[in-house]
Design a protein that fits this description.
This protein is an alpha/beta fold. Helices cover about 20% and strands about 20% of the residues. It has seven helices and ten strands. About 35% of the residues are buried.
Length: about 250
């Protein structure tokens, strides 16, 4: 099974920004970037990246571009779904803070899983929810969330097994069309309203970054700038990461 390394540049800074709108850069004075030495050491030691044997991948501006890159990999037969994802990011990107869960639970999951990508309204795929759509399309078998020191759990409970973090399992659920998912959400999570469909369980892991250590090399990589969530002082990383990537 293939393994994808999915990195956001906002992981490599002292503090985490939330609820950002637009692409105005963060303050270089408040959001302190990792040094080049520490950044390279993380890539080479923790992620097993090498300048001598770079891996194929893509540098993107906004993180939902990862979804469309993976889509291209699947359509070009470079990779088979499902695959494992290591998500190194200050955020989970599973949809907390937007209403994408309403569309996923009220419509998308009720389609056969093999048809969901072709029927997906891609205008609903954003930088903060693209992992939920990748899960809904059946692309992912496991996610390892590598956590920033100040990470605050923002994994949306709507897509968890029993709406609970206890089992560390995603299990996306579909409900009858016509149900107002947003208005009836409390009755949904307490079990009063039952789903019409449940996807298979997909495990996830929460790994503090100081405990993270890749055990084998990755097959593909995405590295995202996220300009609204990073200071300009971090942009030196965009050139460094290209030393470890064969861009496709």
């Amino acid at each position: 099974m293939k393994r994808i390394l999915d990195i956001d540049m906002d992981f490599f800074q002292s503090d985490i920004a939330h609820w950002v709108t637009g692409d105005n850069r963060l303050s270089d004075d408040y959001y302190k970037s990792w040094s080049e030495k520490d950044f390279r050491e993380f890539l080479e030691v923790r992620c097993l990246l090498s300048k001598d044997t770079p891996i194929e991948g893509r540098v993107v501006t906004n993180h939902h571009e990862a979804f469309f890159f993976w889509d291209q990999l699947i359509n070009s037969n470079r990779i088979d779904a499902p695959f494992k994802v290591t998500h190194i990011d200050a955020h989970s990107d599973t949809g907390l803070g937007d209403n994408g869960y309403v569309y996923i639970m009220g419509e998308l999951i009720n389609y056969p899983i093999g048809n969901r990508r072709s029927l997906l309204n891609t205008k609903k795929v954003y930088m903060g929810n693209y992992l939920a759509y990748a899960l809904a399309c059946g692309w992912i078998s496991e996610i390892n969330f590598v956590l920033h020191d100040d990470w605050d759990n923002d994994i949306i409970s709507a897509h968890l097994k029993n709406f609970s973090y206890e089992d560390k399992m995603f299990q996306l659920k579909g409900y009858a069309q016509g149900i107002d998912i947003g208005m009836l959400y409390e009755r949904i999570i307490d079990g009063t309203i039952s789903p019409t469909k449940k996807d298979k369980e997909i495990p996830f892991i929460l790994t503090p970054w100081r405990e993270y250590q890749a055990q084998e090399k990755y097959d593909y990589i995405v590295f995202c700038q996220s300009p609204g969530y990073t200071p300009k002082a971090s942009d030196f990383m965009l050139q460094i990461i290209k030393e470890y990537i064969v861009e496709i």
